[in-house]
Amino acid sequence: MVTPAGPPAPSAPPVFAAVDLGASSGRVITGRVAPGPPGPGALTLHEAHRFPNRPVRVGGTLHWDVLALYRGVLDGLRAAGPVASVGIDSWAVDYGLLDADGALLGNPVHYRDARTDGAAEEVARVLPPAELYAATGLQHLPFNTVYQLTAARHSAQLAAAVHLLLIPDLLAYWLTGERGTELTNASTTQLIDPRTRDWSRTVTAALGIDPALFPPLRLPGDHGGELLPDVRAEAGLAADGPPVPLTVVGSHDTASAVAAVPADGDSFAYIATGTWSLAGVELDAPVVTEEGRRANFTNELGVDGTVRYLRNIMGLWLLQECLRAWETEGHPHDLDTLLREAARTPPLRSVVDAGDPAFLAPGGMPERLAAACRRTGQPEPRTPAEHTRCVLDSLALAHRRAVTDAQRLTGRHVDTVHVVGGGARNELLCQLTADACGLPVVAGPAEAAALGNVLVQARAAGTLHGPLPSLRTTLRTTLPLRHHTPTRDRHSWAAAARRLG
């Protein structure tokens, strides 16, 4: 007698590896979409490996230790085990130069390095700020790639360079041997026209930048090659196993983070907050106006043809630098304890402009915050709790201004603010943002960049389907989110804003 065979055992859902590189650390995070009727179930993440990102100053120049980052990626892929694909996202604007043999010409320079001092004024003599903005729609930031290339224009490295690869594209090249330039990250260089979604001939011609430096543009979801045999060996993957593709994702980490905003509809603002706060709205087309330029809003490109209309704000860098300064002085502070003490500190006593370039460089942050308060006639923060409250109140004010300005400049109504990224874990910051904006805040996911990275990979593999709103539905219905209701005290926030002019 033959026993009938039972139903086939369900196959395990595919695993996607998100390489997510931040300013202080990198992670390789695996994600999978668990099956669940009637469609995909929860999207779950697991941190396979975390590694430090420690910039190195050599000869007076601050560099990224890109080979250490690459080693961290390989170690992370080994820890992740067999995966269906790999995607890479990182910070923006920085790049590596390759020679004719494909070899890296020196370690990439850190965007916080002082080499771009004066570069914006040099560019402005050729392309006045209004003309540069009209061509690119990009916010003025002193470290944008266009200024880095201007600062490097007489260097031997640039003279010898045949290819320029942004940081995630450089790592992708080492993994696959294939060169490409992912569009969302390219849009941060101030060399892309957001209307044509191609390199701006106006800018490259005026500044003498050869567009041939840039490999072909690629879009999130494109096939980006397959892991090379030596990479597979380093990552502990069997030589005779199935090919492992690299899927192009929103390689600017903010593009991936905004893709993972669990919004319902389009009446929302987002704040992707961590080292930086990037606050704005999502649009279908760029808004390139002189009013937007004066308000310092940027038109960066996003997943599925979207535009990230946002303002860059200094973010939790201000607090991170304070913590680093106190630790250097021999007085380390536990962040959770500090946040509890800050919550008990009188609110809005002292605030600063969180977008002030004076806070860009590392070092001496507590003193710089105190000096900014002194210049505006406010009490100087003296204790760590007062410094922390000053930073968080100031960030909430900057979020308020960005959300208000985004609505005014675009005509887009906002009824909810989504806070994603590492700052979503900071309950005090999220509540202060709700209070300052006078709008409900939905906090989470904290690992937004990795989630957006995985979402694009999963859709490219056929595990998920549909446009961006469908992907967000998966997040909204399965992720734990926190809700913050604003208080009714709008007067105090308006008064604090007036102190900053």
Spatial strand arrangement across the major sheet? 17-18-16-15-19-20-21
- The amount of helix comes to 25-40%
> What integer value in Å does the Rg equal?
23 Å
> What distance lies between the first and last C-alpha atoms, to the nearest angstrom?
88 Å
Global mean pLDDT: 94
Contiguous runs where pLDDT drops below 50 for at least 5 residues: 1-9
Structure summary, number of beta strands: 21
Structural class: alpha+beta
By CATH reckoning, the class of the largest domain would read Alpha Beta
**What would CATH call the homologous superfamily of the largest domain?**
ATPase, nucleotide binding domain
Q: Which geometry do the CA atoms define?
A: globular
Main beta sheet = 7 strands, mixed
User: Would you give the CATH topology of the largest domain?
Assistant: Nucleotidyltransferase, domain 5
Count of all domains: 2
Residue share in β-strands = 15-25%
CATH architecture label of the largest domain: 2-Layer Sandwich
